[in-house]
């Protein structure tokens, strides 16, 4: 056994050194002419994988044409928008072209090329015509994609028009949310929306492009200035020789977006995002409290079902624990939020879906240790109680549970802390809790490290408070 | 000897899956009688006792206590158990409760007594087993011998008319055995009907009205202490006694 572990470990070490060696030897070899440029994985029509799984789009075609015109080589790497932006900031990549709006905020950390595209935000809704203007959004939900101009636009308009905002990481999830009726409309960049509709998305554009703004190619501030110059020169050449028009026409065209603020210290970031962080924090705490309540209820009931003298109840308990402990939290959340509505036709609010998810998942773990805690009480205790004539329920309540709970308390505290942390996974269904708030802020200002530090500290503070509270309760009830 | 039959066991069979543990036990216990059950380990003595208050359900046969067949599923077993006290080898005191709470739990929960009555009774029972000073003590602070005496007091709190003892002194250090046996002798003197599984042959000789030898799921021989210890007939009983008396 020991020997096998050792050989697996050494295998891993060899594999790892192989990767390190490959990545070190490949990069410098072509360094003089090949630039590494990051892009978004899905942002049609600017970048997306075509049916041959090859990356194409306005950004991709433009960059290749410019490279050819200027005589340099380029290697385009698709990843998520946030990761693309951060990889340039960290110096792993030379530039980013990803339908990226030129904003004052971003100019604090990036040098942008001349604008190569003008975009604008439009509102799209279901084509049945129930929602046709911003005025009809009062009291409704509007879907946006994290960090897009559409999200900024929604943020600036939601007070005036009285709608609520729900955010998604992927455009597709956002469209789906409108299509299922969870949201009344979405805000999207007009070329993106047009392209999606042409691709078969059953939505309709109802407004003129607003917040028109420029897209730019970006490099890390003060770095890769030669690449930036070549991009600008090439762009001018393409515009002059008609190649630019040909490429944009090939994918269709449209117009742009922006944002401000510039204090990039921790204090500055905290100040600018105070409101967002506070509401994200509140949402996380609220989710945690409600989830703990229902998960405990569910867990205790299912746990008790596992110890009552009935094979049928025991079977139910075991099955529930098996299913909900076995499912990844993420899958369970998506299943409940998007799967249940497509089965029942009834939409389900994200918060409710989140609570149900946590109730089942955390509840299953609670049920398991409730069952385990009770089973850990010596059988002789139950026999002695029953031999006195106490019925099962009374014996359970007066003798077994008090001893079992004492065994369970540390597991409960542990599970409460896990529940708090697991609320972050619910960002996937658009609940703007602390983690999602962090993602949104970063997508806008790109200060990943600082914002995640702030978010991490907030989590640690809440966990510390929760631990203190648990210990205090534990002392109070003399367990 | 009183002729009223308190417990009547007829053709009691108990199987655990394929393991036939009790193979057809017949036994009568009269009011005020003390029956001591002896036999080698694994012969089914505990299983027999546990069938008498239905901690194990009999596979077949009947157990009639005071005219009620407890093997009948319609019988309210909780009511029957109130009248049958049981003392376990490992005491099984409720570790979440104090000494007095252990004794008072069942009378209060089953509405046999008010809190005040139960407390008064607990004091008397603790005095009876020589532990009046331990009224408020935790279970964990007691020695094994003290725990077993509290367990006897707990069982007596329901005023049972039969007491079952399953090797009550087997888990005790030798110096504590005497105190527990003394309490049991006193109980016998007061006329309690008792069925006692034990390896304490001295106790059997002195206190038992009848000694029953169980081996291999059957009663092989029974009789007065004099008959069993001084004139054993069954060769298995003879060899069992050779072993236990010549340690
Ligand atoms: N709950 C049970 N499940 C299965 N087998 C059992 C159970 N209780 C006792 N037995 C078996 O019954 C036999 C008799 O055990 P027991 O009545 O404890 O004997 P004794 O008390 O005479 O030593 C043993 O073989 C034991 O393994
Ligand atoms: Mg035994």
TrEMBL record, chain A:
Pfam families: BPD_transp_1 (PF00528), SBP_bac_3 (PF00497). It is a multi-pass membrane protein. It is found in: Cell membrane. Residues 1-31 form the signal peptide. Keywords: Cell membrane, Membrane, Signal, Transmembrane, Transmembrane helix, Transport. The keyword Thylakoid does not apply. The keyword Transport applies. It comes from the Bacteria. Its main location: membrane. Belongs to the binding-protein-dependent transport system permease family. This is ABC transporter permease subunit. It comes from Secundilactobacillus angelensis.
UniProtKB/TrEMBL annotation, chain B:
The keyword Amino-acid biosynthesis does not apply. Transmembrane segments: none annotated. It holds the Pfam family ABC_tran. GO terms for molecular function: ATP binding. The keyword ATP-binding applies. SMART domains: AAA (SM00382). Residues 7-241 form the ABC transporter domain. Keywords: ATP-binding, Nucleotide-binding, Transport. This is Amino acid ABC transporter ATP-binding protein. It comes from Secundilactobacillus angelensis.
